[in-house]
């Protein structure tokens, strides 16, 4: 909202610079910045065109003689199609400065001397989309005679000083000049004075040609209209037009401009209709039906049952609180006008505006809230402005569709408590003075104060709001500097977050790079890796189709990162993300947020060098990283990797579930070749772990142990086994039968091919035996080794080699 200082002077005395005012308002909690329009403009004056002749060497240029208040007229060559004799226009003199660094110099145009330029509004700083439509393609012409040579800045508001306030949603009262005057006045201890609008009683008639039916009274607590009969639609006065275009509103005509002017003045949107275009002279405020259409000037919107509409018969005139259609617009042929002012449910207006992409000045105000105490006054003000500028034969009384009496809010508080919370010792008089500056009424009984809040400040409801207002107006900078009292709270992370941070540090130590992705995915992505079997959580109003659903896995985001980098020839990637996924159970309204950690590796993990060959990532490399992570969880659990083909977008032969005591805590493996091709990425291996599941595992009691005093004994075992037997099964069985001194087992050889039975493989294992308390004998080791071999032969039908 831009507050015009010249306009503000009508309500309160203003003798401060716009910069000083913006700074002081910002200190009260409303961010403000100064705006000085047209600072670069110079030498712009009113000119009176006394003679126009065709240019002798051009079809469209004209040679004009212009009176600019000097002793002699000056000649200016102009190409505007609307230039003619006896016009009062804007003239940029020789040496004048215009926006964007343009400077006017005298010269010749096709042989004819030109001593300046006759300007359009867009050439002097008014954006073309906000200036009157009749001057879009030509020069600006004053409606009334002006004194030649007079500077045009004040006439057109070209150098208006403004304060641009960036309000918070709870301070929508400052979206009108009246509310802003109260706020700025309180800052300077000045109470604004407003003139109450009055109508010519001789023109008010007891007539009611329109029937009004508000079918959704719970969503439309106030709805008032007035009829204006035998109106002559004209141009609005220049003072109103310049205030409108400085507020980024295009002047249209005396009726529409009056409504827009009151919206800026009061913060209350008002709509106007051509009464003769209504079907059966009726207005109905109701919910739209699916399939209803709203015809706009250059578009058509399909409505649904969630939209509040203003209708007349079968015609939809507009979306309540958002925009009017083209069915009943007021134009130069309008004879009878209907004015409408109401209060519409903010949430409904906001959702409708978003749904149809029709945000407007009116919807912005209804979304944040309007003062239902000034609806009637705003309606009267519009009628007053219209009758001031346009001939009107008769005005109806207010016609009430729905009315809710505006009740002021009453808040009780304690002077001592207010001072205690502020850390001050203000007197009763000082606090009452602050409330009075804000326009609040107070009653004091002992220490208890009762404050009556006007309806324009609907954001205030509790005593804490009173404290905030006293703080703001007294000045935050004036509050004493004190140290906080009370117990100190030790900061830190939750144990779950500590584990996540530890895992993150491990991956950073492994040389992986951390990424951060959006938590929103498209539908295909949430379907691709729904490994947890979650219900999908869709946003009501997504930004785009690519951001419709809350993620149920981190892998799709990592795949996007891989694809983006590989498309730019960055092929060797090792990335991870630590974030939350959203798991929603069937019938559950809100999803559970679960911390996960996931990684993706693609390309070479060892670079080509003079002393090493390049090495591509494989399943065992990424499995090793996962095992490293799991070792740092300190979990008293048996982690296993179980081959699986249940994930459709993972390679069926190179994917495993990660289990802790048979509980699935994650997955690791290679992306399916078809999935990789679809996303234009090379071979990529991924893993994903549920941090909460890992945290909830029982913890080991770690004890320090001295280094073994006695040597270990090793045995190597080579076996021939069927391809359907997994290495994990063999190792588990070796540990189960190796006795209490079996310390470690690892596989050192895998062979398939020539000289091996079909569908078989040869595996080599290294067994380490260790007795920490004594030296092992060959007899003890051989006995344990024999048990291992016998068990393997019996259970897996292996051949010992």
TrEMBL record:
Q: What class of enzyme is it?
A: ligase
Any idea which GO molecular function terms this record carries?
Answer: ATP binding; catalytic activity, acting on a protein; magnesium ion binding; phenylalanine-tRNA ligase activity; transferase activity; tRNA binding
Which EC number applies? 6.1.1.20
Keyword flag tRNA-binding: yes
Q: Does the keyword DNA-binding apply?
A: no
Which part of the chain is the B5 domain? 406-481
The record's annotation in CDD domains points to: PheRS_beta_core, tRNA_bind_bactPheRS
Binding residues for Mg(2+), per the UniProt record?
Answer: 459, 465, 468-469
Which residue ranges does the record assign to the TRNA-binding domain?
38-153
Mostly located where? cytoplasm
What is the superkingdom listed in this entry's lineage? Bacteria
Q: Which GO terms describe its biological process?
A: phenylalanyl-tRNA aminoacylation
Q: Which Gene Ontology cellular component annotation is one that this UniProt entry carries? A: phenylalanine-tRNA ligase complex
**Key words, A-Z:** Aminoacyl-tRNA synthetase, ATP-binding, Cytoplasm, Ligase, Magnesium, Metal-binding, Nucleotide-binding, Protein biosynthesis, RNA-binding, tRNA-binding
Provide the FDX-ACB domain boundaries: 708-801
Required cofactor names: Mg(2+)
Reaction equation(s) it catalyzes: tRNA(Phe) + L-phenylalanine + ATP = L-phenylalanyl-tRNA(Phe) + AMP + diphosphate + H(+)
SUPFAM superfamilies recorded for this chain?
A: Anticodon-binding domain of PheRS (SSF54991), Class II aaRS and biotin synthetases (SSF55681), Nucleic acid-binding proteins (SSF50249), PheT/TilS domain (SSF56037), Putative DNA-binding domain (SSF46955)
- Cofactor binding: number and manner: Binds 2 magnesium ions per tetramer.
Q: Where in the cell is it found?
A: Cytoplasm
Q: Which family does it belong to?
A: Belongs to the phenylalanyl-tRNA synthetase beta subunit family. Type 1 subfamily.
Quaternary data: Tetramer of two alpha and two beta subunits.
Q: What is this protein called?
A: Phenylalanine--tRNA ligase beta subunit
